Amino acid sequence: MGSHIEIILIALVAIFLVLRLRSVLGRRTGNERPPTQDPFAPPAPTPEARRDNGNVVQLPRPNGEPLAPPRSAGQGRVAPEAAAGIEAIRKADRSFDPQGFVGGARAAFEMIVGAFAKGDLVSLRPLLDDATFASFETAVKDRQAQGRVLETSLIGFDSTELVRAELRGSVAHVTMRFVTEQINVTRGADGLVVDGNPNAVERVTDLWTFARDTRSDNPNWLLVGTDTEG
Asked: I want to staple 114 with a disulfide (CB 3.0 to 4.6 A). Which of 46, 56, 147, 209 is the partner?
C-alpha cells in the first residue's frame, strides 16, 4: 500500500512541475516569430574578443573613478522629410523598420567611435565599407606610427535622428545625425597631451550614412560616409 501512495505522490509532483514549466516558458506552437536580428550586428566575436567588449573608451575622473556609461536621449526620432525615402526603401525591403534602425545605428556609432579610439581595426572591418575602412585604417596607422594615443569618452547623446533616406537602384542609403557630448584627447609617446583638453566636454554633431543592398541576403548595414556639422 505504501509503495502505491509513493507512486501517486511522485506522479503528482511530476504533473505539478510540468504545469509550472509551461506557465513560465509557454508552449511552442511552431508559429513563433523568429527573433529580430540587429541590422548592425557584426559576426559573432571570438573568445578573445569577448574578454574586452567595451564599446566606448572611458576616461577617469580626477579622483580616479570611471565616468558613468553614456546617457541616452531616448529612442531617437525620424525626421518627417525622410518619409518618402523610407517608403521607397520599404517597398524594396518590407523588413525595414526606421525606428529599429535608429536604435541600431546609435549602437553602431558607439562601437565604431570606441574601436577607432582604441585602434581596433578588427572590430571596425565588418562595420564599414571598403572605402571608409581604408580611411579609418590610414588614420589609425598614422597615429600609431607617431606613437600617439587617442582617448575618447562618449559622455552621452543629446539627440539621435534619422534625417535622410533614399534608394539608389537596389541600394538603400540612410543618413543619421548624432549630437553627442565627448571628451577627446590625443597624447604623445611621453603621455603628454598634444591635442584636446581632458577637462573639456565638446558638443559634436556627426552625419553618418549607412548603406545596404536590399537584394542581398546579408541583413547588415555598413557605414559608407561620415561628415561633421559645425
From this structure: 56
Residue 22 in this model has a pLDDT that exceeds 90: no
Q: The pTM is what? A: 0.70
Alpha carbons 176 and 160: distance in angstroms, whole number: 7
Domain ranges of the chain: 55-229
CA–CA separation, 196 vs 65, rounded Å? 21
Please report which confidence band the pLDDT of residue 65 belongs to, taking 50, 70 and 90 as the band edges: very low
Query: Which residues, in sequence order, are CB contacts of 220 under 8 Å at separation 6+?
Result: 39, 40, 41, 42, 126, 212
CB atoms within 10 A of CB 71: 11
Q: Each residue of 95-123: pLDDT tens digit? A: 999 999 999 999 999 999 999 999 999 99
Find the range with the poorest average confidence among 55-69, 79-93, 205-219. Answer: 55-69
List the Cα angle 193/178/35 in 5-degree steps. 115
DSSP 139-195: HHHHHHHTT-EEEEEEEEEEEEEEEEEEEETTEEEEEEEEEEEEEEEEE-TTS-EEE
**CATH 3.10.450.240 holds for 55-229:** yes
pLDDT at position 229 is 81
Q: Say which DSSP state 99 is in.
A: H
